[in-house]
Specification:
Length: 398
């Protein structure tokens, strides 16, 4: 038998039993479609979370007070927290690679104006917020650079401005923050949400006043923007050296945006792999279906195999007949599954626009190759058994 004859025979064998072949193809198709859909969700979530954290830029370093170390036993944690001061922030701003610094204090208080009151997130910060956090002003100006006793100025987030002032301009208006009077000098442009936190429903006041408002003696964080051409590791080491010199010990934690994105990337990559593996279980079930169908086919076609052997077909050709049939079923199932998965992803994206979906093409290719491999493996045992049949006995079987 020539190669073309083998292919034609395998196609004919699949077409002779359309119902059984369809069920086998559907088994593989469901597995591939599951891999396509689940990995599209996993990859979409992966990219969405990384984009959320990257919207503030990637050349950032965060310094927080306190350092936690393990002592080699479960639960044995020692935490030594000392204040991060505004003087620390000013000292960090003088490092050569640092372009801007923002001291951060955060809390939640009531903001009032003309009988309207709204409880919102208040950030105590400095003038570097627009530059470091990649935010823009819609009107007015941001907090100015002042000394130890800054004026009671406030900048409203876009949503907070609408809630308190409607369509009127809030510039120059007086508001009360935690019962204290502030003058509005600016309104931020809309930034949207980050992982469910509304960045527009916020208020910005000077960090010095926020420390007093929230009765804190330490900043919650110091954010640094460094030269994008500089090495984050080198900058972080210089920050560490300076703060150790000021504090006498390493009682703080330094986190670079690169480190955070790398950790998030590895965790979310593992998530995509896990959901892909869940889809692969369905694919494995489809492979078992091929093995079952090919085993049944062997029992039904013993006389046919005996006739082929009597006409001169070798054992190797008989093996390839069964292997090609199994691989053809797997290939058809993979293509159908790819089409079904693609359609479901598109329809889901249209029905739920907020759901992040992104096809993971490496997993899609892996699923297609896996389907072919499963077909090959599932066909091996029936193919070997078919090749070992004695042609004389096979011809005399009923």
């Amino acid at each position: 038998m020539r190669t073309t004859d083998l292919m034609r025979y395998a196609l004919g064998a699949v077409g002779e039993r359309p119902g059984r072949s369809l069920l086998t193809v559907l088994g593989i198709a469901i597995g591939v479609a599951a891999v396509v859909l689940l990995t599209a969700i996993g990859e979409g979530v992966h990219r969405f979370v990384l984009a959320e954290f990257s919207q503030f830029g990637t050349n950032l370093i965060a310094v927080s007070p306190g350092r936690t170390t393990t002592l080699g036993m479960s639960g044995a944690l020692v935490s030594n927290v000392r204040p991060l001061s505004l003087d620390d922030a000013r000292a960090l701003a003088r490092l050569p690679e640092v372009e801007a610094v923002v001291p951060v204090v955060q809390g939640n208080v009531a903001v009032e104006h003309a009988g309207r009151s709204r409880r919102t997130t208040v950030f105590g910060a400095g003038p570097g917020v627009p530059e470091i956090w990649s935010m823009r002003l819609a009107s007015g100006r941001f907090l100015p650079e002042r000394g130890a006793n800054p004026p009671a100025f406030a900048v409203l987030g876009a949503e907070l401005a609408v809630q308190l002032f409607g369509q009127r301009s809030p510039l120059g208006a007086r508001i009360r923050v935690g019962g204290e009077p502030y003058r509005v000098i600016g309104v931020m442009a809309r930034k949207g949400q980050m992982l469910g936190f509304d960045l527009d429903d916020t208020l910005y006041i000077p960090a010095e006043r926020a420390l007093a408002l929230f009765d804190r003696d330490s900043l919650m964080e110091i954010d640094l923007l460094y030269d994008r051409h500089a090495d984050s590791t080198v900058v972080a080491e210089r920050v560490r050296t300076l703060l150790i010199r000021r504090h006498g010990t390493e009682d703080f934690t330094i986190t670079t945006q690169d480190q955070m994105l790398a950790v998030l990337g590895s965790v979310l990559g593992a998530l995509t792999t896990v959901v892909g593996a869940l889809g692969a279980i369905s694919l494995l079930v489809g492979g078992i279906g091929i093995l079952t169908i090919m085993t049944i086919a062997l029992g039904e076609r013993r006389r046919e195999i005996g006739l082929l052997r009597a006409l001169g077909a070798g054992r190797e050709q008989i093996r390839w007949l069964f292997l090609l049939e199994a691989m053809l079923l797997a290939l058809l199932g993979g293509l159908v599954g790819l089409a079904i998965g693609g359609v479901v992803v598109v329809m889901l994206g249209l029905a739920l626009p907020g759901l992040p979906l992104q096809p993971a093409w490496d997993f899609v290719l892996l699923a297609e190759c896996g389907a072919l491999l499963l077909g090959l493996v599932a066909g091996v045992v029936p193919a070997l058994r078919a090749a070992r049949l004695d042609p004389v006995r096979a011809l005399h079987e009923q």
